[in-house]
Amino acid sequence: QVQLVESGGGLVQVGGSLRLSCAASGNIWSNNVMGWYRQAPGKQREFVAFTSATGSSNYAASVKGRFTISRDNAKNTVYLQMNSLKPEVTAVYYCYYRYGGVNYWGKGTLVTVSS
Fold first, then answer.
1. CB 95 within 8 A of CB 35
2. Residues contacting residue 26 through CB under 8 Å, at least 6 positions apart
């Protein structure tokens, strides 16, 4: 089992920044993928970004250029730096860990961008 704990969400004004963190613990395998999804009110959960243990990453088109994903393998932690925030990114952000075709999810952290 893998446990994920997100932090860093909150209320921020338009144009502001937030940095989300997600720490993984438990049965961690080094060759994993970690990333973020989000779910806005009344919408389906959608992909945001991921990063592999080797450093490759990918982003949803809607966040490319404004969000940056990074990780600290020694700490089993993934980060999401979010800049130039807009109201439409308001959502619950969920961290995930993937290994061997199995996904584990955190409970989510709420990001609210006020105009």
1. yes
2. 1, 2, 3
Please say whether the beta carbons of 8 and 72 come within 8 A: no
| Contacts of residue 71, Cβ cutoff 8 Å, sequence gap at least 6 | 34, 51, 53, 77, 78, 79
Pinpoint the alpha helices (H) of the chain.
none
Residue range 45-66: mean pLDDT, rounded: 96
Q: For residues 93 and 59, what is the distance between their CA atoms, to the nearest angstrom?
A: 14
Cβ burial of 97 (10 Å; 0-12, 13-18, 19+) is: buried
pLDDT score at 77 = 96
The Cβ of residue 68 has, within 10 Å, a number of other Cβ atoms equal to 17
pLDDT at 55 over 90: no
Q: What are phi and psi of 106, to 5 degrees?
A: -85, 175
* pLDDT(30) > 90: no
Contacts of 68 (CB under 8 A, 6+ apart): 80, 81, 83
Residue 7, both tokens: 């932090």
